[in-house]
Design a protein that fits this description.
- With about 375 residues, the protein is α+β, with helices and mostly antiparallel strands.
- Helix content is about 70%, strand content about 10%.
- The protein has 3 domains: about 160 residues, no CATH class; about 70 residues, Single alpha-helices involved in coiled-coils or other helix-helix interfaces, CATH 1.20.5; about 120 residues, Histidine kinase-like ATPase, C-terminal domain (Heat Shock Protein 90, 2-Layer Sandwich), CATH 3.30.565.10.
- A hairpin with a 2-residue loop joins strand 2 and strand 3.
């Protein structure tokens, strides 16, 4: 069980502990008044039943609220709670002469009604309940000796105006704790989804490149074996297939262990060897050794995906790579002549989409597509802050 789940369970336990404490401080005065004033049986029985009903309604509401946080009560509960609350105040005033102890249970029901509603609705319910209760007490309360006339209505209105906060504030706090836990859980699930997407992108990067090279080398070896003088070169190509397969296996293992590096200089050397085998000339303008380790790592992945796309999707005969720094930052531009006539709104593949996300995570951006001179360009831009 995680720390956040334990906190939520502790919050719910606190809610039930507060409920038991409330039984003492809210319902206790009402019970004491019943024993002290000893009302007639026709008032005593309805008052006892009313206290039991209030307690049952409140317990049922707490259970419902915990199961579905922030869901307000329905109109049936509102009507019944309002009727029971006013009935408790009326019976308390008529039967015992003192009404404010019974305004406590009525205030608890009022808190149940207003929790989870908008501020204007809460203000309307509280103001309306206080006004109606005060008017009711003024009309039916018997005069008490040695006490002012306003004693009963003022205390009833005060109790009702304050006791609804016993539930409202505490359950608002419970709602905040549960919502915070839900938000953190959603953030955790989002982090897991992003990590899965990153892992999928990295696997596409490794295996897509490796399998494309293996397929190309295997096809080239088959063609060389058909010639009388190509056996030695075919053997070299097959050994290269073995090397690429083993290297890819090492990279997959490194990826799983979170220690897979990429380097632009290494990728350029591998790209030159692969493209030479395919009869594609590679021209380099710029020195990858002058870049930082972070820049070489990020741009190395871009270089690998670009070479994979050249082998998979193009009929290129010439490829150029340019590395330069400008006002906007470090720029890697890879161009090839293998897609003449490609429409400008061509579909971006999975690998380029992954590179878009990858560079965005490092505050960079990727642009890929045909240029006006018939070349296909992949441009990666990294701001200086990335290094």
């Amino acid at each position: 069980m995680g720390d956040e789940e334990r906190k939520v369970r502790a919050a719910r336990r606190f809610t039930w502990i507060a409920f038991l404490i409330k039984l003492l401080f809210v319902f206790g005065p009402s019970v004491l008044i019943l024993f002290a004033r000893a009302p007639e049986l026709r008032y005593l029985v309805p008052l006892v039943i009313g206290l039991v009903v209030v307690l049952g309604m409140h317990a049922w509401w707490i259970i419902s609220y915990i199961r579905a946080v922030a869901r307000p009560t329905n109109w049936v509960f509102d009507v019944v709670a309002a009727a029971v609350g006013l009935g408790m105040i009326w019976l308390g005033v008529v039967g015992t002469g003192i009404g404010f102890p019974f305004a406590g249970p009525a205030g608890v029901l009022l808190g149940n009604i207003v929790t989870g509603r908008r501020a204007r609705v809460v203000a309307a319910w509280v103001a309306g309940a206080v006004v109606v209760s005060v008017v009711l007490v003024i009309l039916v309360a018997p005069p008490l000796p040695m006490t002012p006339v306003a004693f009963n209505p003022v205390l009833v209105g005060l109790y009702l105006a304050l006791y609804w906060t016993v539930d409202f504030e505490r359950l608002w706090w419970l709602r905040a704790v549960i919502n915070l836990n839900d938000s953190r859980r959603a953030a955790g699930e989002l982090a897991v989804a992003r990590e899965r997407l990153r892992l999928a992108d990295d696997l596409h990067d490794i295996l897509g490149h490796a399998l494309e090279v293996v397929a190309f080398k295997a096809e080239l070896s088959g063609r060389l074996l058909d010639t009388a003088t190509g056996h030695e070169r075919a053997r070299a190509e097959i050994e290269e297939v073995q090397r690429v397969a083993r290297q890819s296996l090492r990279e997959v293992r490194a990826l799983v262990q979170e220690r897979r590096p990429t380097d632009l200089a290494t990728e350029l050397a591998g790209a030159r060897a692969v493209l030479d085998s395919a009869g594609i000339r590679l021209d380099l303008d710029g020195d990858p050794a002058a870049l930082t380790a972070t820049e070489r790592d990020i741009l190395g992945r871009v270089m690998r995906e670009a070479v994979t796309n050249i082998l998979r999707h193009s009929t290129a005969r010439r490829c150029s790579v340019a590395i330069d720094r400008g006002p906007e930052g470090l720029r890697l531009l890879i161009r090839n002549d293998g897609v003449p006539g490609q429409p400008p709104n061509h579909t971006v593949g999975t690998g380029l989409a992954a590179l878009h996300r990858y560079l965005a995570e490092h505050a960079g951006r990727l642009e890929a597509g045909p240029s006006r001179d018939g070349m296909f360009e992949v441009a990666a831009l990294l701001p200086e802050a990335t290094a």
